[in-house]
Design brief:
Chain lengths: 135, 322
């Protein structure tokens, strides 16, 4: 059903040029039947919030390979909350295990490392969206 | 996420400038059904007459980048542009990568609203969702409204072709004079853009288009008023030609107004929308009819070679409208 069509905004936040991973994730989510709004490189929390509003997106996927996740991911969660958008943030990329709990505490819905399988990526997004929808 | 999506409340909030409400309204349009019908009823009388610009062309021709430049010019001009960027859904999984915003990064701002739309495969879906989205943008006083579609497939050509002004983007090496004279996309163009004009073959592309337009003159296929679509050499990356495209769109608009063609196009667009909605309704009835025991019996009879498929369809048609 079109009603259940999941729309995901995918972006690289800040100065981070590694976009191999995010392109693979875009394709993975597409093949799982989701609509991926691909923003690409050098986005700001503001541009992502605008995209979520205009696209009526169900989730935000951030790809991070610049070690800025502890700063940027919580900033993203906060920016969405400030805009009164109850949309889950999923982080993918290089995140050391020791940082996981801090991201969790900051309200990041899921963190996917380099070893995550396609199924895990899809499940993380679908679960995060389902959790918000049933709230 | 707000679960209460009352079209009336959303429309009111969107019209007072709440972008998120407009985003949600567009989802209502996309999903169709009773809520979308109600929204259409509410928004239709609010017609403001925004200029509708279709931008179309082959994948990779530079449509999104050009659209980004055009929206920037519109914002500088004091307008409030909206973009509806249509990309294909996978017919197999239903998923889609909507990658047009990535080309419009440099123009984000309060005055611009971009919405990406997947074709979603269901029959006539796009043909219904696009006019619905245009109506909502227009009711919220966005003007111009730019519809960007990949110029492949009849629906996409139809959608682009029913805009007030249709811009067709080609690139050097896209084809020769024979391609230019084939039926299709080029026939609906009001403005031609030869994009990537710094590349070899740009002048050839221009010449082939000129020749096609010359032939339209010879065969009498050109616009009765003598309007000849301009051909603009552009380079979306550095913005060359974008202002000329913008001027050509404005000139075409003036032409439509002075000749009365604008009203004709608008009427044609509404007629097409009614027809598409009717087709959708009939389609639903057909689906239901096909599931009925009568049609099952008929299908079995065709399977037994007792009734021909054509005859079975005739019989069912009588049942549908009888």
């Amino acid at each position: 059903m079109a009603d259940e069509q999941i729309r995901v905004v995918l972006a690289k936040l800040g100065l981070d040029g590694h976009d191999r991973g995010i392109k693979i994730v875009a394709r993975t989510l597409r093949d799982a039947g989701m609509e991926v709004i691909y923003l690409g490189l050098r986005q700001t929390t503001k541009s992502i919030v605008a995209a979520v509003e205009e696209e009526d997106a169900d989730a935000v996927g951030l790809s991070m390979h610049n070690a800025g996740h502890l700063t940027l991911a919580p900033a993203m969660v906060q920016a969405l909350a400030d805009a009164d958008l109850d949309v889950p943030v999923i982080v993918g990329g290089i995140v050391p295990n020791v940082d996981m709990s801090e991201l969790d505490g900051a309200g990041v819905a899921a963190v996917l490392g380099p070893g995550a399988s396609a199924e895990e990526v899809v499940k993380a997004v679908a679960d995060a969206v389902a959790a918000k929808r049933t709230q | 996420m707000t679960t209460a999506r009352d079209p009336e409340d959303l429309l009111q909030r969107a019209r007072s400038g709440e972008r998120r409400a407009l985003g949600q309204l567009l989802t209502v349009v996309e999903r169709g059904g009773a809520a979308a019908d109600e929204l259409t009823r509410l928004a239709h009388p609010l017609f403001n007459g925004a200029q509708i610009v279709g931008v179309t062309g082959a994948p990779g021709a530079g449509k999104s980048t050009l659209t980004g430049k055009l929206t920037r010019l519109a914002v500088i001009n004091g307008d409030r542009p909206a973009v509806l960027a249509v990309d294909p859904s996978s017919p197999i999984t239903g998923g889609a990568i909507l990658g047009d915003r990535v080309r419009m990064n440099d123009v984000a701002g309060e005055e611009l609203f971009i919405r990406s739309m997947a074709t979603r495969g269901h029959s006539g879906g796009l043909a219904l969702a696009v006019p619905g989205a245009i109506r909502v943008f227009d009711a919220c006083e966005y003007d111009p409204i730019i519809i960007e579609t990949v110029g492949v497939g009849q629906v996409e050509v139809d959608v682009a072709g029913t805009a007030d002004t249709t811009v067709v983007v080609v690139t050097p090496g896209w084809g020769d004079a024979v391609q230019a004279n084939k039926a299709g996309l080029l026939e609906v163009a009001d403005v031609f853009v030869v994009n990537k004009s710094d590349r070899p073959g740009a002048d050839d592309a221009r010449r082939d288009l000129e020749m096609m337009l010359d032939l339209s003159h010879v065969t009498g296929q050109e616009d009765a008023s003598g309007y000849r679509p301009p051909i603009i050499m552009a380079n979306s990356l550095d913005g060359t030609g974008a202002d000329e495209v913008w001027k050509a769109i404005a000139l075409h608009r003036a032409h439509l107004e002075s000749t009365g063609q604008l009203a004709v196009r608008r009427r044609g667009r509404l007629a097409a929308e009614v027809r598409n909605r009717l087709a959708e309704l009939v389609d639903v009835s057909i689906d239901e009819l096909m599931e009925s025991s009568d049609s099952r019996a008929l299908l079995e009879s065709t399977n037994q070679k007792e009734t021909s498929p054509a005859h079975a369809a005739r019989q069912l048609l009588d049942r549908l409208f009888g």
